[in-house]
Amino acid sequence: MKKSFSLIFVLLITIPVLFYFVKFPWGNDPFSGPACLKPVPHKRVWLSPNFYDSVRQWLRCTFPLKQPLVALKNRIDYRLFSFTDSDNIHIGSNGWLFQKNTIIKSHDGNDDAKPLSKQLLNRLHAIEKVLAAAKIKFVFTIAPDKATIYPEHTRTRPEDDLLKNFLEQESKIPLGGFVRLDLLLKKEKLTQPDLYGKTDSRWNHYTAALSANEILKKADIEQTPIDVQSTRFPKDNGDLYQALMGKAQKHPAPSIRHFFGPKNSDGPSAIIYGDVYAASLIPILKKHFSKLDAVFSNRMPSKNFGENFAFADVIILECAQNRLKQLNIDLQHLYAGIEPFFENTFKRALPNAKIQPVSMLSIHLEKDALAIRSTGNKSLLTFSNVQGSTDSIFKFLKLSIEAGQSNTLTMWPEGRAGFTLRKKIRAGISSVVYPLPFSENVNITVNPGEHPGIFKLRSIQTIGFPGDKAKGPVEKFMPSEKNQDIYTGIEFVQKADGQSRTDPDKKGMAKQKDPALNMPTLWISDIEEGKIFQRKGQSADIAVTGSYTGYPGAIEARVINADPFEVVVPWTVIQGEPENNVFIGILKNVPQGGWYKIEVRSSIAPWIKSSGSNTWGVGMLIACIGQSNMKEWFNTGNHIKAHPLLRFHSNGSWVIPQKTGNGAMTLGNRLAADLGVPVGLMDYAVNGSGLTRAADFGKGFWMDNAPDGIYDSFVNSIQRAGGSLEFIIFMQGEADAARGFISAKQYRQALERFISDKIRQDIENRSELNNLPFLIIPMVKRPGGKDAPCQSIRNAQMKTIENVNNCYLGAIPIDLKNKGSQHLAPSQYKILGNRVAQTILYLLGKQDYHRGPFATSVTRVNGTTIDVTLKHRKGDDFTPTADITGFDVLSDKKMLPVKEVVRKDATTIRIKLDAFFIGPFTVRYLYGAMPDTSSPVRDNSPLSLPLEPFIMH
Amino acid sequence: MVFSSTLFLFIFLPTVIICYFGLNYIFANRLRNLVLLVFSYIFYLFGAADFLLILMGSTIADFFIAHAIHKSKTHKKLWLICSIVLNIGLLFWFKYANFMAEQLSPLISYTGFSTQNWSRIILPVGISFFTFQKLSYTIDLYKGKLRPITNFIDYAMYAAMFPQISAGPIVRFTEIRDQVMERVETWDLFYGGAFRFCWGLCKKVMIADACGRIANSIFNLSPQLLETKTAWLGAFAYTLQIYFDFSAYSDMAIGLGMMLGFRFPENFNRPYSAISLTDFWRRWHMSLSRWFRDYLYLPLGGNRKGKGRTYLNLILVFLLCGLWHGANWTFIFWGAYHGVFLIAERLTGVRDMDAAKFPVLRRGVTLLLVMFGWVFFKSQTIGHAFSYIAAMFSFNDLPIPEVVGEILNLKNMVFFLIAAASVFLPERSGELELKLLKSRPVSYMAAIILFIILLPYCVAIIAGSPETPFIYYRF
Fold this sequence. Notes:
The complex is a heterodimer of chains A (953) and B (475). In chain A, strands 24, 31, 32, 33, 34, 36, 38 and 39 form an 8-stranded mixed sheet that branches. Chain A is built from 19 helices and 49 strands. Chain A is an alpha/beta fold and 953 residues long. The longest helix of chain B has 35 residues, at 76-110. In chain B, α1 (6-27) packs antiparallel against α2 (32-48) and α9 packs across α20 (440-464).
């Protein structure tokens, strides 16, 4: 017996190894993460803990029996303990399975649900009416969660406040195209209890068909009897049991866009937005449309797919109940897309509305516009008494606003009835539409821009959409072409004395202007401590803002050097006639240099001054983005003291560099010292972030269009810092390399799009170059024998540098030592920082080189000797002279043993092989799974720049 | 490498078994210590690759020092001191240098130097264990209790044996001398080893980790958020976790040893059935207790030099015992705490009290004292430990934190309750228990349950969950 059980034990632990050798197809997805990359053994890593960690992770990842074993464990946990480790699945009573996010709601006594549901309904009404104006039918439905239909099986379930509030609101102000499925399904459950599978996360085919029918009914489309049996539905209903067993989804989620049809050439055409529930509706819906354009996205309209609303008769929006909060309706985009097709709308000036400054801004009616001088994010004005939307007419407020520089406008209604609109406006004229909430009169608060600036409100109108409920002819109003003064009837109100600008009290004004009677007092709005304004050429225009009481006459401003005292810009009038107790003006051409302070004074009482206490500067801003190796520029090493002109911008604010950040401080210090101007480094890399969606390991990806994605956060932070930059440094790629299947071509295309379509569209270029210079630092070497997948990404990065205008090699880091992980050692960041600084100085014309030598040819000298010829860019020789590492010679796809690599002369490296070889050969330098960088070639230039990696045949 | 990992279970262990027995068969046992040595070093590479050379270097040095001790007529003591300085020096550097740098940093900065650029030293796995093991060899040799090994491979294998290099038991050379030279591998022994190994694996994966999840979720909370019941639950869960975790490791180490023909000393004997702290230390981590007794307490004079000296020796030994566990004030406090109660037991006569007197009460009190000690052991700072104990006696009425509520699911609770039930086991195996264990049907059933049901389940848990190292790995 003991022998038998001993053998059983040995067998049990040996079988998986056997499976391993026969490459049994179970195990994990080999591309499921960086840990799954196969490490390559090498003599240099045998005492490296990293290598053994890599082996351990890789074996764990590819363990042949992993899947069946995990399934076994999960099955026992499920059956025996009603328990699961899964973060996504909830086990209800009698073995019912639910998605966890449909059980644990945000309901914890907060009252967000009510305003959220109001805002959602408001936007849906806006869509419905806007689409109706273009003769497009809109149908909206919420696919109920399984937990909503079967609460009795959940064991515990707080109520979904958002849905509840939405339905309550909707019953008060009905949405014409709303298909309410929860009631329908609850009713249906009485006769047909099987609407959702016990272990499925979503409804079954029968329920999908039922729901599709309701949608068709709402879209006024004639239905045909549904034969569920003969319809081919997607096979996957979200099998939670399979997910519980740890099995990967066999049926991947549908790709983002699909076209169906023509099935019914006489039928209307439609666009459907939705999620996986929509996928199950499509088999029924597509039979009724001539064309069905399906966009599986929670964003409507999608940002990238350019769906054409003009050719759609019906727009269907489906949203799963648990994704209601994420539903993203981009009204600006939608409105702009279909505005040319509007019929039956009317435009009006605002007859009874008042525009009134609330704080920190002044308004002034000019000939062709209303000038708004805004001091920044505290500047507010209101549009009061604006007639809101009604049951019969939905209204938009449409503004046409001109800004001198890019800024962010914010609008929100009084109370929490409507939604807050934040819109980036660029230099020039922008249109902004805002859906008016359902209310007799609405007061709308506007912050024209989060940065100080002068804006011109060129027009303001309400656009009414009668929708389906309009009765009788609609009164049309258009301002005449000649008379663009659409402010007729609008009253502008002075805040301080309540005097209307259209009817000024001249006596009062005269009294006010007498300084003896009305001594002014000034308060300057100080500039953020440490802020650096991006220079344009050698200087920058600075907005100076503040408030006053009394009568100050003209406002003058000057800039002084903080220490030692020195006048940088003498007293200059920035605003001749300030109004509404605030002043704002632009102080032009403040020269770059040190740390400044701002002062303002009254022209009629010059002794009355207000001085800012914060110091700020005009200099260069450089954004640092990418993933952890870029983040480490700011977080690793504490060996350097920051230059007084260096500042970091992190989490939206300016900070004085403290002790850590070898890379950033080396870069910033050198630039500040050589250029003598303040240097701001914007710390916006995100650890673990990918470039492409496929490389999103939960840390975000840079190509993301989502409003809460890492890219938008970065752009918003740059906007907050002024919206313009002089350089961007990009160091990324590890996440994409870890995926393994992202090809060099895919990565290159994504990176090129990222630079051209995103970065250069959203950020203003203030460099001397044609485009915002984008500096790429190719990936560092990955330790533990895992460098091979990084090669393709590195190649893609180098190719991008060649392809894209004003895209440059920041520095080669592959010769630098790792800390043990894939991050560089702290001391190496100093070298890298210096190399990148050299590149920037080169681009600014302050240095005459920034790249090291490169190989021009490889020559076979004889059967055992190869010469590599170099070309120097700066130095005239290189080191080391012997024991050079990093070179591989391949012939017939096999590595030839290298005897030694030595310097032959200042431009030639000689590779001697152990054995004679014939035939074609390839020489590569710092390539392959485990490039040996222990003794690389570096030139004798002051920066000792490395020979650039190459592969030559 | 963690025993409860797929790498160990399905790659390393089968390879060891196949190579060990295969080569034994081919070379008639001549290479078995070499095979074990090679695999032990491979095992160590996966735990602390960059310290392998240190282990090898110190092993070579100790081997020659041992010979020098044996051969030298006049400088035996000097050579012993060399060995002690070498081993304790390495231990001190790797284990305590960071702690000393932190503690002495104000003093150092006063002298004009700075510890700002101090790079933290990483603790090599198992250094506390193999240092003590090697020291026992040279000290015993010095005392003349044994003769030195002539074959370096044998010695190196003894010093680096993979089953117990990471976390003990601390095996003295005298205990396995014969087995190192000559041992017999039998099916009986192999079966016993496999059984013991699987038993340890189940204890670790099912019970210790379940208790650990509960304990960690509670200890991670701020003591201010703890309500009384939760605080007690956390302390008790950790009490169970540390026992089941460490004893599981010992079971697995002993089991692995048995599979390879060794019989390592036992490390635990139902410690929570102890009726006094003195009794507890006779049952808890017995190989360490014995080491401290034989190589520190007794050489200091033990209890032979009067009461005062005995108490001093006790407190010193337990302070060092605490410090051995880790470079933190909490461990030092924990050692002192036990030392003080051991002295108190001597002073009050509890130590010598008849075991039959108030056994239930004494077991309860001892368990409580041990449990309070574990609070210090588990906490990051002494302040946290006192706050935690204050929470245990706050008798407040705060709600159970949600995070704890989630952890107290049916699965964790079942294993926790099984662990808790073990506290009520008798202090030693009863006749019925022994009889049952020896009966054929019971042992059959036990083997079937263990090998056919529990082992696959444990492996499934290991495959599907992140690795949880043993608590004593960090010592």
